[in-house]
């Protein structure tokens, strides 16, 4: 019976994820919502078949939940009741450098004691899925804080627990999402990609292009030679684009049909610094802030020149400010890439990066509306 149930779940998930651009996910980050002023009243849930909320974390063998996160649960439940097809997902997020967390998940006895608490919490709070997110950073190379296979062990045991819970309860299996951050070469050795894909139902892959915090003539970086929305490499050695990051994961054992392209769409504002007292010092542009698409539209109204580079990536020049951002045109190109390459779907990594106020004159959340419309096209 157990084998039959597991086979049913596995077949259903493969069918679900094998459709190009079938998974469309929006992420609610309670902290940036409070900072930006976006509230649940702004959200049109019909734009997001999957709603993910970030996050709960481990603390002393228990779950620690920020009040700002749990306060959103009733809205999620009500939204799901009104829109039964919507799936809600909870992120279990921790930092790799936490040696106490590592001690828990590397020890089989402690790991197997904690995991049922996580599964029960996810089920009791009516989530359809859970994502495991280990934030890569300080501590990766310390054997006291991280080991590539111990994290894969944790992912595998969570999946087993989810299957067992569904078998016992007779309820639909909670979907397990993994997360891989592939945006920096030094992270490459720190994921067991084949095991992550084998034991996760779907993988959210962070793969947007990065660029220097300083650009311009002084640093020999042209204003139009870089952009976070860049999709394809411009030469064989180009490693700073979505295509390179996705292909590198696939080469290590990733599965396209289980891969959700996860992008951070916050616009980047640069300010030009000129050195009038010393004309031999070339001008440079320093990053001064991130902001959402609505603020970009508000800022550049009637006073900007827009240049497009690469795959329709817009760059606005307003006075001494240069803004790298995404708009509806560049989003179409991203979804074309997702569909062309047979990826499972697309995730907006932070929903507050969209125009949630309607400043662009195209209704609220025009970027996500574009994603939904393009994904649904044959």
From TrEMBL:
<dbReference type="InterPro" id="IPR050314">
    <property type="entry name" value="Glycosyl_Hydrlase_18"/>
</dbReference>
<feature type="signal peptide">
    <location>
        <begin position="1"/>
        <end position="18"/>
    </location>
</feature>
<dbReference type="InterPro" id="IPR001223">
    <property type="entry name" value="Glyco_hydro18_cat"/>
</dbReference>
<feature type="domain" description="GH18">
    <location>
        <begin position="22"/>
        <end position="378"/>
    </location>
</feature>
<dbReference type="Pfam" id="PF00704">
    <property type="entry name" value="Glyco_hydro_18"/>
</dbReference>
<keyword id="KW-0732">Signal</keyword>
<dbReference type="GO" id="GO:0006032">
    <property type="term" value="P:chitin catabolic process"/>
</dbReference>
<dbReference type="InterPro" id="IPR017853">
    <property type="entry name" value="GH"/>
</dbReference>
<dbReference type="InterPro" id="IPR029070">
    <property type="entry name" value="Chitinase_insertion_sf"/>
</dbReference>
<protein>
    <submittedName>
        <fullName>Chitinase-3-like protein 1</fullName>
    </submittedName>
</protein>
<dbReference type="GO" id="GO:0005975">
    <property type="term" value="P:carbohydrate metabolic process"/>
</dbReference>
<dbReference type="InterPro" id="IPR011583">
    <property type="entry name" value="Chitinase_II/V-like_cat"/>
</dbReference>
<dbReference type="GO" id="GO:0008061">
    <property type="term" value="F:chitin binding"/>
</dbReference>
<dbReference type="GO" id="GO:0004568">
    <property type="term" value="F:chitinase activity"/>
</dbReference>
<dbReference type="GO" id="GO:0005576">
    <property type="term" value="C:extracellular region"/>
</dbReference>
